[in-house]
Write a structure and sequence with these properties.
Its cofactor is Mg(2+). This protein is of the alpha/beta class. It contains 13 helices and 15 strands. Strands 6-7-5-8-9-11-10 form a seven-stranded mixed β-sheet, sandwiched between helices. A four-stranded parallel β-sheet has the order 2-1-3-4, with helices on both faces. Helix 1 packs parallel to helix 4 and helix 5 packs antiparallel against helix 6. It is elongated, with a radius of gyration of 28 Å.
Length: about 425
């Protein structure tokens, strides 16, 4: 459909230093993104300007330098560490004689490689279609020229409108299917809310170690690798926390600075797990020299998806890369855990995370003594299945004296199950 150059695996990276903080990107992050996409970097071109050039983004002299380097190295693609306009892409491809990709296009390509579930593939395709729809006009420049004479006028406008209609139809179809997925997720969330099961969602900058931590806490085998966006599809697992009970732990896609808006919109169903969470575990690669900036970027994205008000517990991960730092819990003035220092890779400090979760999610507990007749053996079995029996003995009359400890929620459910007749067996508070 497009008259664009084919992409490839050998790239020239282009990074420009801009004075405005909002436009500034990190060159090392671009190199990580390229590695994550499976691209081999043949050269890096850097430049500095007060503002981007409307024609090439970089200056015309720098554009010629890039084209010369492409020719020397036989590179098949040029990747910019910035967002390019369709016109800038077209002009750069014309002078470089190869495919040109911007930061957004590179991230979309990585997401396309990582998507494993049907839902993930749909979300990526939606983001790609939305991105490409703004660039359609550049794909048909060879058909838009109007030539003189009957039968010589190009069909460019007709073809362009046809493509736009096809893309609009496909987007509409994907949105319908994603809406169905979202409804299924909402049903699951409502069921957990009715059962009063708390949900803890792992969030953080990409490659902060969320999936490694998730696997350690859940004894799971979610794909984890030292690369950007290793996790794309959300995964939910149950864990047990003392004095809290069952907790749903959710592993989510990592965030990155200037996360493309098309991706945020496409992954709405996935990010809903973060919006509706009881608590967010904000995982930070504390050994990264840019970790403070990364925390700010994650906070910015959380605000953008309306999850900025969800309570957070910061997990300072990868302490094994720091000198003389041991696992610990930092608390606020009220004694509430606010930070936990761990190494997920080494398995250090994981018990402190569970302790902090217990304190942050702890329910109101009941501590009772029950005196049960021999006929209430079924109730005794139920109490054991809830892991609530702390002690028991049979007295001289044959009555079973049971000491229990459980959440108020579980006690109320049990009362309802036995038609609110359990009070007659309560022998007092312990």
């Amino acid at each position: 459909m497009f008259d664009r150059y084919e992409g490839g695996d050998y790239a020239i990276l282009v990074h420009m230093d801009l004075p405005a903080e909002v436009d500034r990107e990190d060159l090392s992050e671009l190199q990580l993104l390229a590695d994550s996409a499976g691209v081999k970097t043949l050269g890096v071109v850097t430049a500095a300007r007060s503002s981007p050039s409307p024609k090439y983004f970089v200056g015309s002299g720098k554009a010629e330098e890039i084209a010369e380097l492409v020719k020397e190295t036989q590179a098949s693609i040029v990747i910019f560490n910035h967002a390019l306009s369709p016109t800038q892409e077209r002009n750069l491809e014309k002078i470089c004689q190869c495919r040109v990709l911007d930061r957004t296009g590179l991230i979309l390509d990585i997401f396309a490689q990582r998507a494993r579930t049907h839902e993930g593939k749909l979300q990526v395709e939606l983001a790609q279609l939305r991105h490409i729809s703004t660039r359609l006009v550049r794909g048909w420049t060879h058909l838009e020229r109007q030539k003189g004479g009957i039968g010589l006028r190009g069909p460019g406008e007709t073809q362009l409108e046809t493509d736009r209609r096809l893309i609009r139809g496909r987007i509409k179809n994907i949105l319908k299917r994603l809406e169905k997925v979202q409804k299924q997720r909402e049903q699951g969330r409502r069921a957990r809310q009715r059962a009063e099961i708390p949900t803890v969602s792992l969030v953080g900058y990409t490659n902060a170690g969320k999936s490694t931590l998730f696997n350690k806490l859940c004894s799971s085998d979610v794909y984890a690798a030292d690369q950007l966006f290793a996790t794309l599809d959300p995964t939910l697992r149950k864990i047990e926390v003392d004095e809290v009970g069952t907790v749903i732990l959710a592993d989510t896609v990592g965030f990155i600075r200037h996360l493309p808006h098309d991706l945020v919109a496409a992954f709405k169903a996935t990010l809903q797990e973060t919006q509706d969470a009881t608590l967010l575990l904000h995982v930070v690669d504390i050994a990264d020299e840019h970790h403070e900036d990364n925390v700010d970027q994650v906070t910015e994205v959380l605000t953008e998806i309306d999850a900025g008000d969800v309570p957070q517990l910061m997990i300072c991960n990868k302490i094994d890369k720091l000198d003389a730092v041991t696992p610990k819990i930092d608390r606020d003035d009220e004694g509430k855990p606010v930070r936990v220092w761990v190494s997920a890779q080494q398995g250090e400090g994981l018990e402190l995370i569970l302790q902090a979760l217990q304190e942050r999610l702890g329910k109101q507990m009941v501590d009772l003594r029950l005196k049960l007749p021999p006929s209430m053996g079924k109730l005794r079995g139920t109490l054991y299945s809830l892991n609530s029996v702390t002690a028991e003995h049979v007295d001289e009359t044959g009555q079973l004296n049971v000491a229990i400890k459980m959440s108020v929620v579980d006690w109320r459910k049990l009362q309802k199950q036995y038609d609110y007749q359990l009070d007659q067996f309560v022998d007092g508070q312990r």
